[in-house]
Amino acid sequence: xxxxxxxxxxxxxxxxxxxxxxxxxxxxxxxxxxxxxxxxxxxxxxxxxxxxxxxxxxxxxxxxxxxxxxxxxxxxxxxxxxxxxxxxxxxxxxxxxxxxxxxxxxxxxxxxxxxxxxxxxxxxxxxxxxxxxxxxxxxxxxxxxxxxxxxxxxxxxxxxxxxxxxxxxxxxxxxxxxxxxxxxxxxx
Length: 188
Description:
By secondary structure, the chain is mostly helical. The protein has helices at 3-25, 30-45, 50-73, 79-119, 122-136, 139-144, 170-186.
């Protein structure tokens, strides 16, 4: 069986495993991700162009990590989601990983809206979105718009973290994007 077929089978197992565990326990096991990394590099190093294949895989992992780490830093997702996106990037390389990230963001947005609709937590979601946008704007723009960004970190007891509008198994959105792109390889 060709290396690409093995990689596709491994990606299928990774995506399904990550989605199932994220739905069940809201965690993506590091052992699953480590096994994927070992498998990907083992297959690439046994292929015809090991250096080029491994470099492409690392490039995909770097794109996935770079595009998802800001969301983690803004407390929009868990570290396991960032590690999963980087791992999915190993299978796709840089160009397709960008597509996987965009698809995962879209799927995650739809899932978030459905969760907010189901729980009726519109006000909490609005407050969280407002806080996120204000955190991204530079202070001179906030002053020009006459918007008070609120107290800074360590400002005292009123600086409590905002209540969440609900958690979401983002691993499912990442898995769906990976499975969609994988299916596109075999369609038509």
